[in-house]
Write a structure and sequence with these properties.
Elements (H helix, E strand, L loop, with lengths): L10 H9 L6 E3 L3 E2 L3 E6 L5 H14 L15 E5 L4 H7 L14 E4 L12 H15 L3 E5 L1 H8 L3 H18 L2 E7 L17 H7 L2 E7 L6 E8 L12 E9 L2 E10 L1 H23 L5 H8 L3 H10 L7
Parallel strand pairs: 3-7, 3-8, 4-5, 4-6, 6-7
Antiparallel strand pairs: 1-2, 8-9, 9-10, 10-11
Helix pairs in contact: 4-6, 5-6, 9-10
Length: about 325
């Protein structure tokens, strides 16, 4: 007899049944819990892959990332890497003297097979292989870097990326998986707060995710980053705009990743970022067009002439009235 699609229980029965299920534990603080489908998104070259590999190593080894909580012991992690080839990965995790970081033996990196000659990779083939990996390595944690591979290379449309997400949710429920998907943001104004709308295909993808986590780039230094919680279901939203996690990119114990530095308001970093962007625009226009007046520079950048004058004076270039 065919199993029904839906189950019908009283609300009280649902609560009682849920009490028999273990409480999901933290995989990456309150940003990602067990049996959740999490989307981690950011601009290109901000550090999505660095953070994802760092989280994967933390879970695989059972080692806490300083500043973040971890609630599970070391276990198998399947990391699907469609961003870097083997040599690029090796170079990223090898320091100048030529010493490579030693990852946990529980961390499995899975990449595209160059010998695969299929003209087009079908989603059903992808899921058949993922299923075989789950069963063979008995892993319940998957990280896929990144979703655009399926939206752009393997799949043909954004709708197919959403369909892929739906299939991932089916797989998640079947095996009680914890899944992190990495995704890009389209070109955005970096002086504005990061929001759900900055996720490419946000209308469809965000609805299917249990949690959304974004990475922003600060401007106090080139290695400054912050992590922002956009959506959460298993905890309170503690790391929103008023309390983002401030980090910097740096090696720790040989692994390049995010180093925790505390908390701050996103607006503080955005104001600083806005100042940096404006300064660069003013100085760029002045350098490219030395005869351009301060009034015209101000008009093109969208600030007043006095601000342009101060920027040029501060940089020792206030000779243009």
């Amino acid at each position: 007899m065919k199993s029904p699609i839906f189950t019908v229980r009283t609300a009280n029965r649902c609560i009682e049944d849920a009490k028999q299920v273990p409480t999901p534990m933290m995989l990456f603080d309150e940003l990602w819990f067990e049996q959740e489908l999490c989307i981690l998104f950011a601009d290109t070259n901000v550090g999505k892959s660095l953070l994802a590999v760092q989280v994967a190593q933390s879970i695989a080894s059972g080692t806490v990332i300083p500043g973040f909580q971890l609630g599970v012991p070391g276990q198998g992690v399947l990391y699907y890497d469609f961003e870097f080839n083997d040599k690029q990965f090796e170079q990223r995790y090898t320091n100048p003297p030529g010493i490579s970081f030693t990852f946990s033996s529980n961390l499995y990196r899975i990449g595209y097979n160059p010998d695969c000659k299929a003209p087009r990779i079908r989603s059903q083939d992808v899921f058949a292989e993922i299923r075989s990996h789950i069963e063979s390595y008995r892993s319940r944690v998957l990280i896929i870097d990144n979703l655009s591979y399926f939206a752009g290379n393997s799949l043909e449309t954004a709708q197919e990326a959403i369909d892929f997400m739906r299939e991932m949710k089916v797989l998640k429920e079947e095996f009680r998986l914890s899944i992190m998907l990495l995704a890009h943001t389209p070109k955005r104004n970096k002086s504005l707060s990061i929001s759900e709308a900055d996720l490419a295909g946000s209308a469809g993808l965000s609805r299917l995710a249990d949690s959304l986590v974004a990475i922003g780039k600060g401007c106090e230094s080139t290695d400054q980053r912050y992590i922002k919680q956009i959506k959460v279901r298993s905890a309170m939203l503690n790391y929103g705009a008023e309390n983002v996690i401030k980090c910097r990119l740096a090696p720790r114990n040989g692994l390049l990743g995010f180093v925790f530095e505390g908390y701050c308001e996103e607006s503080d970093l955005l104001r600083a970022a806005d100042r940096t962007d404006i300064n660069e625009q003013v100085m760029g226009l002045h350098a490219q067009y030395p005869d351009l007046s301060q009034a015209e520079i101000a008009r093109q950048v969208g600030v007043n002439k006095m601000r342009v004058s101060r920027i040029l004076a501060r940089e020792g270039s206030s000779d243009n009235a």
